[in-house]
Amino acid sequence: MMDASDSGAFVLEEFMDLKRALRLKEKYQTPLYLYDVEEIKEKIHTFRNYFRSSFFETEIIYASKAFSVKEMIRLVQKEGLSLDVVSLGELVTALSVGFDPKCIYFHGNNKSEEELLAALENGVGHIVVDNLEELKMLEQKCLEKNQTVAVFLRLNVGVEAHTHHFIVTAHVDSKFGVGLDSSELEQMLAICRNSSHIRLDGFHTHIGSQIFDLTAFDAAMEKMVSVLSTFPTPLMLNLGGGFGVSYTEADRPVPLKEVCTHLIFTMEKLLREKNVSLRRFCIEPGRSIVGEAGSTLYTIGFSKQTPHKLYYFVDGGMTDNIRPALYQAQYHATVLGKEQNEKKQLVTIAGKCCESGDVLIENCLLPKASPGDLLWVHTTGAYGYSMSSNYNKQLIPAVVFIEGDEDYLVVRRQTLEELTEREI
Predict the structure, then answer these.
(1) pLDDT tens digits, residue range 133-153?
(2) What number does CATH give the domain 294-414?
(3) Given pLDDT bands bounded at 50, 70 and 90, which one contains residue 71?
(4) Do 202 and 151 meet the contact criterion of CB atoms below 8 Å apart?
(5) Which end of the chain is more exposed for a tag (fewer CB within 10 A), N or C?
(6) Nearest-angstrom CA–CA distance, 358 and 362
(7) CA–CA distance, 108 with 128 (Å, rounded to integer)
(8) What is residue 407's predicted lDDT score, i.e. its pLDDT?
């Protein structure tokens, strides 16, 4: 299958047709999250094949916040990737399927005492420390347990990628990381130098998401290599993720092969120029592994013509995909079985929640659809299921993996009984 990230342009997935979609709806109901396992593997293999160097070690760390369920973590482990977690829940999910804790990186800007203790007790490989107070708490817990832990310090390198302001993570006032010239960083480095329980293994940064301009990464790498040049022994660098994917025809992400080769080439060049050694270079792809591999199947219900808009209502909405309401994310959709029909309806796809902002797609050009038609929304694999909610007491949909001609359930649809089982 040809995919969008390899071509650099939007390409409609080909593994779904009306007959298969109707069978999936009958079996699992809609809304329904779908994942193409072959495409996930293809993305992983591209990273593994091209993010390599003969001058330093490389490591690919799956950013599980994009999509964290047991079966996905099993797949990540089987494919030989490490794992990034940002909460106790994500850590427990990984450990529940036997993921090697030594290959886990624990992130977060406000880790609780419980989370730090869980990381220590389970032998998590690295804790990515966000701030001075966290480092002090971590050292205290290590002293109490007489335990040594390896850390990365998260740096705010001041590189602002051209992306939505809600998902930019490295401008100077970001809540993430510490500034390169800050007194806070100096104090954190002093703790690492003087502590017998904290081992500084390297530095981490993440400059944003949906990045199509690789020069933003170049600027971040240059600043990080400058930091490395002040240390006598080779350390590790983690550049984070943020590699763009195709949501609509307007998106032009850099193909993953080109992303990988560019990052490796630039890092090798910077190290030579500055005469710096690097032990390991890490990246954290999440969306770029699962985003395009995932899609959502809806059933169209009523339609409504207002003075200025034609609405098609679907049986899901912001509860299964909050991204359009949260930061105006855009999507492409197909009315299955009517792919060859003339697309002459300018439609707004809206959900069933009691919110005016419950809109999945604005101004979507579609063929005329009828109640009961199936709408297939593409590239929902990242931050769809992960950010789902029970707003309006809507049920969270099932998640199904599709591999060739086979489909199998990886998360069953929530039931009405489960909806209230924790309520007293």
Answers:
(1) 999 999 999 999 999 999 999
(2) 2.40.37.10
(3) very high
(4) no
(5) C
(6) 11
(7) 7
(8) 97
Burial of 234 (0-12, 13-18, 19+ CB in 10 A): middle
Listed by start position, the domains of the chain span 37-287, 294-414
Q: Are 162 and 214 in contact (CB under 8 A)?
A: no
In Å, how far are 16, 34, 330, 344, 397 from 369, measured between CA atoms? 18, 22, 20, 11, 23
Torsion of CA 334, 396, 351, 164, to 10 degrees: -80
Of the pLDDT bands very low, low, confident and very high (cuts 50, 70, 90), residue 189 is very high
What the block records as the tokens of 279 is 């032990």
How many CA atoms, within 13 angstroms, populate the side-chain half-sphere of residue 382? 25
| Mean local confidence (pLDDT), 176-205 | 94
Architecture of domain 37-287: Alpha-Beta Barrel (3.20)
- Rounded to whole angstroms, the Cα distance separating 178 from 165 reads 19
Residue type, 331: Y
Mean per-residue pLDDT over the chain, rounded: 93
Please calculate the CA angle 396-244-242 and round it to the nearest 5 degrees: 85
Supply the residues annotated as catalytic. 354
**pLDDT over 50 (residue 12):** no
